[in-house]
Model the fold of this input.
Amino acid sequence: MEGITKRFGSVVANNAIHLELHEGEILSLLGENGSGKTTLMNMLSGIYYPDEGQIYIHDKPVTISSPKDAFDNGIGMIHQHFKLVDVFTATENIILGLNEDGKMNLKEAGKRIKEISQKYGFEIDPDQKIYNMSVSQKQTVEIVKVLYRGADILILDEPTAVLTPQETDRLFAVMRNMQKDGKSLIIITHKLHEVLEVSDRVAILRKGEYIGDVLTKNADQQSLTDMMVGRAVSLNIDRPLPVDPKPRLEVKDLTVHDELGVKRLKDISFTAYSGEILGIAGVAGSGQRELLEAISGLYPIAKGSIIYHNPKTNTTGNLAGKDPLEIQKAGISMAFVPEDRLGMGLVGSMGMTGNMMLRSWRNNKGPFLDKKEPERVANEVWKELEVVTPSVDFPVRRMSGGNVQKVLVGREIAQDPAVLMTAYAVRGLDINTSYTIYNLLTAEKMKGVAVIYVGEDLDVLLELCDRLLVLCGGQVSGVVDARTTDKREVGMLMTRVGGNTNEK
Amino acid sequence: MKNKAMFHIVKREALPWYQAWLIRGAAILLALVACSLVTVIVTGLNPLSLYKTMLYGTFGTNRKTWVLFQKLAILLGISLAVTPAFKMRFWNIGAEGQVMAGGLACAAVMITLGETIKSNAVMLLLMLVVSVAAGALWGFLPAFFKAHWNTNETLFTLMMNYIAIQLAAYFIIIWEVPKGSGKIGMINQSTRMGWLPYLGGKQYAIIILIVAILTILLHIYLKYSKHGYEIAVVGESERTARYAGIKVEWVIIRTMVLSGALCGFMGMLLVGGTDHTLSTDIVGGRGFTAVMVSWLAKFNPIVMVLTSFLLVFMQLGAKEVATNFYLNESFSEILTGIILFFIIGCEFFITYKIQFAKSGKEA
Done:
């Protein structure tokens, strides 16, 4: 790619970027949020069209103005959000949209898929329906889909964000097999240790500019971060000891069912203490979402109790069976940063002020809204968390992911909560913003708040939290001290229900 | 570069409001040009005289202007009524039936109690209560089913339209005057019981005034009240609403009752204020046109004044054209269609721009 420039309105997403990808190479593309990684890759895969510049493949200039052009040139992209038809089988999804001559031959296609899988070491059942698959299986289908179309250049956009450590290892093994076969791969990721582990070379973008590239063997986490951010950054999370921990939230035998009557949580019991960060680890979909939503009154509870110790009045109360409004009215100050930021935590079409109001609009009397107080909070969050937005009325939907999260976390902290729950608080955020969030959570902990942190990055969980609660299949498989345990132990707990059978 | 695509569609950053309005203005001008072309090609008439006739049909005489404003007020009123529901993303296409229900209830009071009640004020009050209640009921039913069993509100409200219209047809036969005519005729023509009073000697002034006040009230309600905030949040995402402790079912029902009640009120204005009779086509599709008015204005009550004016102007103007040039009504609908096509189409150019391959030319 030479001199690639892409503008969106007045924003320059990519400015005169030169990027080279060699045959049989794994290249990591690294950069903070909004540095233009995905935009650049979208131009390779035909979703956007560059305003300026030229793309060459094997020294031949090519024009890629549609995803079909990209496929014709052997470029395939595996997006962060899978684009699969749920009710179709793997095979059907893979051949979908291919205009092959003659009759659709599912058997033949299935055979070819098996061949591809064996060649690179995938595990895939061509006849399995997508909705029966785990996230990592779906990802496999996406990769096979691209290979089936004869791609030589594969682009993976944050493929590991949704995988467990074990699944990630398997993916990396497959990537190396593809590399041996002469394919070139570009991987976008925020996780530095993965970059170091899997790639041959690292290319770095910052604010739409190409900063440079380094051979992975000459790089380490610190040097990469410094290049990415443009200045030296401390990569250590400060973890002070909890001060005067007291039980704040006691969950006892909590069981919930989903709409279909399937048990999502089974007999969960734990205690969250004031002044500590309790980490919740587990494979995606082990009941983390249900647990947090049940505590905040958003998920119906079948059995069990949630006892809250009110630090202001020294009284206790049971939250089970209350809805969010009743919890709020009972004087329980609980903050919740949900996983689905725009779909649950925020109103996308409103600005910061409108979103601050989401927690406080009931506070004043009378039928009309008080906009002054939320506006003050919005301005405060804007300034203190350095949210990048033209004004407090700019729709949050059009902010970048990191800024959206700052608005959400900022609002929840501004409530002065006694319990602060966060679900995947740093998912999709760059290093700088992630550390801002870690520091905010630690600051809350030091104020005596009981912080519950649901995370996916084990390294962070082990560095940030005081204790770890590991969930597996909707049950607690262990509670460990984050200071003394290690990744291997937690990884084991994540895939095994406290020694019992793996029932749901 | 070889075989390069001619142009690409690119999403814009937000346009400043005046540029957006410039594009909209240009769209209307273009629409008029397109209408002229079609007129010349199809009928051979001079398009300028056509537009002159349209202006005459709307502002030509005092009487025509009053009719324009009366029709504008009714359409705007119904559009205001459907707006809270649509802002909540509740696909209420039942305004037709809700207005009809209100009108029917209003006519029922006027006919059955026209002799017994002597005071016009009491009569009007009773009409108001009954028609608002009828409209509210028509709004409540689909909302209740939606909130509790998640039925599809579009189908439900559509079906409620037929029930209201057939009910009206049934009662029209019962109340028909003279017998066998299939029509009701002017209700209480001699006593004028239940007729809205004239304001300053003008028949429609009161309706226009009421709708103007309604516009401002609704604007305040949607923008500055807690209810309005709840509606906006529920419309954006029900999950966010629940997260914020909003009782979504209750908001859906409350808002639809409000929508239906306003529709019922418009039904009363129609029967008591303009038509003084009841027929099955008294609403005349305005319950559906109102949806378009509301969407075109992006649910902003103040902008809705403009959009409903545009539609009424086109409708009346085109009618005048049709009668004066011996064209049938279909021709006026062709013209209205062309104009709407341009107005709705120009929103594309406000959201996106077209980039040509060579340089930064924009369309």
Notes: The longest helix of chain A spans residues 165-180.
